[in-house]
TrEMBL record:
Species for this entry: Pseudoroseicyclus tamaricis
Protein name per its UniProtKB record: DUF3489 domain-containing protein
Length: 55
């Protein structure tokens, strides 16, 4: 069963909120996305004003 995008976006936000942040690899593993999809999601979060450390 495919996870809904809303749930995956929430998962990405939680990963980014961790003290150590999140690597692209960890986001891909947590969501099942390919790297280009994870980058697109990060770009979308940035455009909507989500705060991250930018590492």
């Amino acid at each position: 069963m495919t996870k809904s995008p809303e749930n995956q976006e929430t998962r990405v936000r939680k990963l980014l909120e961790r003290k150590q942040g999140a690597s692209l690899e960890s986001i891909c593993m947590a969501t099942g996305w390919q790297q280009h999809s994870a980058r697109l999601s990060l770009s979308g979060l940035r455009k909507t004003g989500s705060q991250s450390s930018g590492r």
